[in-house]
Amino acid sequence: MGAALAAAGIALGAAYVMGRATINRHAADYAEHWRRAATDVPEDAIHYVALGDSAAQGVGASRVETSYVALLAERISQVSRRKVVVTNLSVSMATSRDVVRYQLPRLAELDRAPDILTLDIGGNDVVLPGNTLESFEKHFADILTQLPPGSFVADVPWFTLPVLSRRAERFNDAVADLITLHGHHRVHVHDATRGLGPLRYHINTAADWFHPNDTGYRAWADLFWEAIESSGLPDLPGFSATGPLG
């Protein structure tokens, strides 16, 4: 029995190491993909800007095309019948402080403002040392004040490990209501990930047991799309026409 448990532990450890190696390749490859995808935005195209961390990069997806940003862009294009150009300013390992320091200045420098903007941030604030609830709340509020009105902002994802789940709940409770107070649309990632429970949570995560996998990212894309639909944006006169959104 002891030998079997030891063998299982070794196998799990090896799987985790291999999973981490895959995730590290994703982080580099997907960042390069989004850098190459950055291009001029035609006048009749929808400009979708993504801010955030490795989730917005798609780390954990089997292909960058199955990331939530790519899936969401595809859905927006299908519904609007317009080309969607994605400018993905997110960075793996980013915290809320990094969004304030690096991503918001890049957003301000864009030649064309976004027609649709999404943000996911907070996961790294929860798991990385040196980030406090007070600093996260401050930086999150700073971000919200500088986003274009009506942006689509995810709340803080939930994690299955007890110490992280409790911390994620505290971080989420501190900032979730700020999203709508600042005139943005809340995307309910926290409740959706928490509602999975420990078993289904792991079915929706990649080989590193942390980032979403293809199934997880499709669920995230659905959550963002539900928020977009609820906002009434697809019903605006300019959504399926040419030129800037109505």
From TrEMBL:
Protein's UniProt keywords contain Hydrolase: yes
The keyword Hydrolase belongs to this UniProt entry's keyword annotation: yes
InterPro entries reported in the protein's UniProt record: GDSL_Rv0518-like (IPR053140), SGNH_hydro (IPR013830), SGNH_hydro_sf (IPR036514)
UniProt keyword annotations, A-Z: Hydrolase
GO molecular function, one term: hydrolase activity
Residue ranges annotated for the SGNH hydrolase-type esterase domain, each copy included: 50-219
Source organism superkingdom: Bacteria
Family matches, as Pfam families: Lipase_GDSL_2
PANTHER family to which the protein is assigned, alphabetical: GDSL-LIKE LIPASE/ACYLHYDROLASE, PUTATIVE (AFU_ORTHOLOGUE AFUA_2G00820)-RELATED (PTHR43784), GDSL-LIKE LIPASE_ACYLHYDROLASE, PUTATIVE (AFU_ORTHOLOGUE AFUA_2G00820)-RELATED (PTHR43784:SF2)
UniProt-recorded name of the protein: SGNH/GDSL hydrolase family protein
